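ENTRY TYPE: paired fold submission
RECORD: A
CONTENT: sequence, then structure tokens
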Amino acid sequence: MDRTKTIVRTGIIGIVANLILSAFKAFVGILSNSVAITMDAVNNLSDAMSSIITIIGAKLSAKEPDKKHPFGYGRIEYMSAVVIGVIILYAGITSLIESVKKIIHPEVPDYGVPALIIVATAIVVKIALGLFTKKTGEKVDSDSLVASGKDALNDSIISTATLAAALIFITTGLSIEAYIGVIIAFIIIKTGYETLKDTISELLGERITHEMSKEIKHVIRSVDGVKGVYDLVVHNYGSESLMGSAHIEVDDTMNAVQIDRIEREIAKKVFIEKGISMTGISIYSSNTNDEAAKEAHLKIRELIKDYPDVLSTHGFYMNSETKEIRFDLVLNIEAKNKFETHAAVLKRARELYPDYDVDIQIDYNFSD
């Protein structure tokens, strides 16, 4: 399956459907003097524009990596989602202004059977389009398509509200469609805000999910010779360009040839099974058959229980010959007094082992 072609094809379907709906709704809205139907038409037009941006973003993000951008252009999809968010937000604000004007200066709508049929048809079309787009987006891992699908399903609710306002006016003579227009505007604004918020969060760099972290670590631990996996970080350069790094713990008796074999096997397995390129695999050495080291490690583990911001330790190694102890102190990334906590633990560790050179590196919980 060609991901880009699928996104483009789905986007074109969305463009055609939304332009047709927008044209019919605008025509009916103007004829019937209905601000709600007109605002619904504006919303459909913004959806068509969003689909155009999605197609452009998909095309540009599919460009091959080059010297200047060795990780590819996948993040352009996020930039296109930002543009979509701005378009939706602008459409919502414009709709709100027009609806408020109609509340201040009301005009009596004139609904006819064609208007009701078009709005009812739009509801069915939007539900079908929303389900199709969302499902396709999930299938090809496209945030833009998933967002468009959810937006289309929201639009079906908007169209339902518009239809309800028309039926209420026909049966009771009560015109609430300007107020419905305000509600529609707020829904559009909310969609635009959420699109921007989610996309900007991805651009900043989000923590990988617990499930993803667990799966990747399981793959790495399945390689013979790996005793532990720590400091897993995955960088997202687009849905098809993921780069990862991690620390692995191995026996201190291993030589460079054995470690090289492990690293290559990890890189191969993670890429095949999870589609992630492991750009960095660092090594922690683990004491082998050293009872003094095991005892020291237990004492350090007991010591850190006094500090709520300390989540764990890893990479512990004790060398009795050179009188060295080293390990990483994993702190809560949101902790306020990181360096004070590090200094306190270091001081107590040195008091426990005054004859040793104790080296503690600060580490954070970048993933579960």
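RECORD: B
CONTENT: sequence, then structure tokens
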Amino acid sequence: MKKIASILVIVLALSTMLMACSNDSAADKPTELVISTWGFSEDVMKKNVYEPFEKEHNVKIVVETGNNTDRLNKIRQGSSKVDLIYLSDYYALQGIEEGLFEKIDRKNIPNIDQLYNIAQAPLGEGWGPAHTVAQLGLVINMDEVKMKVESWSDMWKPEFQNKIALPNITITSGPMLMDMASKHAGSTDMNADAAFKALKEINPGVVKYYSKSADLSNMFAQGEVIIAPMQDTFFGSAKEAVPNAAFITPKEGAYALLNTVNVVKGSKNKELAEKFINWHLSEEVQKANALDKVDAPSNKHVELTEAQAFGMTYGADVVENLKTLDLKMVNEQMASWIDRWNRELE
């Protein structure tokens, strides 16, 4: 009996030790945080953003990549376990209106207060901030353009026919083209009839309605186009192809391109996701990404030299003067615009 009792004591002790080890192992297991993003500059994002956060918070970050439309559709279909999603403001508003995101607790993201005003709440106080700000301006091959270009309306001049590319209606800058065309036709506000009237005028001379900035850079490199609206983020590639290319801010103003980050509805890691957003908005991370030419900083405390800021939207005098569209109106009208575009322009 004494031997049996002793064996039972040993077995119980071993069981207790194994349970303790198992519990310790579970406690040490990192929390998985799933992030949906575009996927560019993955190595730099891993170095500057993901790995330091993983180490500090015992987190394993899993990244799902793709374009705005595909990734938002996955959230709509519930086919992924995403906690955080990065989207341009136009697509983010669709997610908000469809109830796909959680309202953020801004107390958990104090670095929002360090952002430029335009980036703090681009889609409302309850929703995610813009982690970067870019602008849509005009890129010109100065080797081929001898006249002064200072307005969006200059694109309609005869000198640029058969040498111009414009954004397709379906990409982020498509609605901005609608606004440019509407204003060129003389409308004070966005007016679809005015916009399509102006687009029909320029349409015969458009080399291509581009959907990818890489395609646009290639067209500049091959001499197919000499002027086009372009996001400044991609100007560097055009400059490499055409050393005498210039980025122009038209006198009417450049358009703001705001990339936002939101917490997905139903995330089991909402507080951790908000900590991650706060980390991404920090001066430390924002400057590191700016120096590596990943994103222009939306944190107004980041200081860059002129050379470091080249090709990026930087400084309060630039950022706070960018033009924005009524995205709610754009979302309401987009289906009819696309239908009309396909019938009247393509």
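NOTES ON RECORD B: Residues 7-14, 20-25 have pLDDT under 50 and may be disordered. Residues 290 and 309 are 8 Å apart (CA to CA).
STATUS: closed
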